[in-house]
Every structure is written in C-alpha cells, then in structure tokens.
C-alpha cells in the first residue's frame, strides 16, 4: 500500500502550527515557574518576618529583604525568558518593541535588586566586623 504524500505547503503549515503550539505551552510553563518562584519567595520571607516580629528582632529585616530580593531576581529572569519565547515565532515590529521595553525594564530592575543585595551584604558584613572588634579586649 502506498502512502499518500501531502502537499509540502500543507505539511509545512501543520509543522509550523505544532511548533507555535509547543512554544506557547513552553512560554506558559516558564511563566508558571516564575510565578511559583515569586510565591515561594513571599512565603519564605513572610515566615522569616513573622519569626523576627515574634522574637522582636528588627535587625533581621535586612536579611528578610535580601531573601525576598533573591527570589524576585530569579523570577524576573524566568519572566524575561517567557517574554522572549512569546516573540520567538514570527514577531511583529510591535511585539519586538514591547519585548525590548520589557527587557530593559526587567534588566534594570534585576540590576538594581542585585546592587541593593550587594550593598546590604557589605553593610551587614561591616556591622558584624564592628560588633566582633568591640567584643574583643
């Protein structure tokens, strides 16, 4: 029995539809992972905040902020990846412009989050050094 050969244009169209559907599912999965990372960061930071409040340790707030910032920075990377996927297949100039704006905004947010985390780490290290030197005879 001979197999019927499809029209190459039809075969291409079906393949393209499959690739587009696959990328859309992948984009959705990446967005979900980003959202889950944010949720996990909120839960983790919230738990740390409640512990600090109950123990009346307000000095721990910086560590809590850094914890949340780490989760947000990671989630931003996933969200940017999802945005890139959304324009990966036959993007229009409008979509490319939107992606460029989103990429700039998210990259700037990530840069400033990273800078703030680094500054907080340095400040926390300096405070610990001062405490350590004041306790030595």
Key descriptive features of the protein:
single chain, 137 residues, mainly alpha, 3 helices
CA-based shape:
elongated
Mean pLDDT: 83
How would you classify the quaternary structure?
single chain
Structural class, by secondary structure, is: mainly alpha
Please work out how many helical segments DSSP would assign. Answer: 3
Low-pLDDT segments, ≥5 res: none
Percent of residues in β-strands: under 5%
Helical residues, percent: over 70%
Biggest sheet descriptor: none
Radius of gyration: 24 Å
Q: How many strands appear in the DSSP assignment?
A: 0
H/E element sequence: HHH
What can you see in these coordinates?
- There is one protein chain.
- Helices cover 85% and strands 0% of the residues.
- The protein has 137 residues and is mostly helical.
- The protein has one domain.
- α1 (8-54) packs antiparallel against α2 (61-86) and α2 runs antiparallel to α3 (93-135).
- It is elongated, with a radius of gyration of 24 Å.
Task: Report a brief summary of the structure.
This protein is mostly helical and 137 residues long.
């Amino acid at each position: 029995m001979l197999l019927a050969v499809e029209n190459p244009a039809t075969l291409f169209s079906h393949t393209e539809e499959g690739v587009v559907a696959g990328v859309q599912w992948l984009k959705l999965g990446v967005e979900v992972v980003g959202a889950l990372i944010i949720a996990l960061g909120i839960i983790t930071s919230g738990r740390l905040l409640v512990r600090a409040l109950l123990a009346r340790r307000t000095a721990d707030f910086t560590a809590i902020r850094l914890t949340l910032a780490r989760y947000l920075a990671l989630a931003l990377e996933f969200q940017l990846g999802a945005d890139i996927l959304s324009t990966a297949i036959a993007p229009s100039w409008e979509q490319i412009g939107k992606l460029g704006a989103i990429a700039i905004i998210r990259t700037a947010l990530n840069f400033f989050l990273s800078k703030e985390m680094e500054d907080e780490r340095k400040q926390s290290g300096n405070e610990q050094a001062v405490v350590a030197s004041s306790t030595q005879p």
